[in-house]
Amino acid sequence: MRASEVVVIDYGGGNLGSLLAALEREGVDYTVSGDAAAVRAARATMFPGDGAFGATMAALRERGLDDAIRGAIEDERPFLGICVGMQILFERSLEFGAVDGLGILPGSIERFKNAPRIPHMGWNRLETASDHPFVAGLADGEYAYFMHSYRAEVGAATAAITEHGERFSSVVAQRNVMGTQFHPEKSQSTGAALLRNFLAIVRGE
After folding, report:
1. In angstroms, rounded to a whole number, what is the distance separating the alpha carbons of residues 171 and 70?
2. In the annotation, is 185 catalytic?
3. Is pLDDT above 70 for 3?
């Protein structure tokens, strides 16, 4: 099996079109796959999640993709989780009852408690909180596009913070593990810069 530069995980529930278009603009050698063996062989993995946490984890477990993702991360291969793809990195979510995540990062995904409205939908600002290469060049105040009702609290892996009635992790980055609560492929120049940073990490630049 040829190891693609990036495997984009297709678990039957993600919205892939705009992300694939963004990767094509960057000239990325990618494969779309829901096969655990392809994830294990990939140089890097991207997971654009969409929908409920519990349904996403169930779909990953059914296909053996949960263990494949953990294995790729343990092998120190770059991983980027988008939206729910970021949330599953945590220990659990309280969306529709407690559901275990991958447990790569500590903490729980919980519903906004003090938000002026739910879901948090539309453009909002990022505040950098890390010098991780994934957020290199990201200036405070840049905008990204959000649509979610559950969020990760600010913690050790937080690389950028956003405020919506309360402060939450909008970007996480810890060694080879990265995630965005928003969709970078829908976040114009800010998102494009983050995708380029991820690809630079994949290529060892």
Report:
1. 19
2. yes
3. no
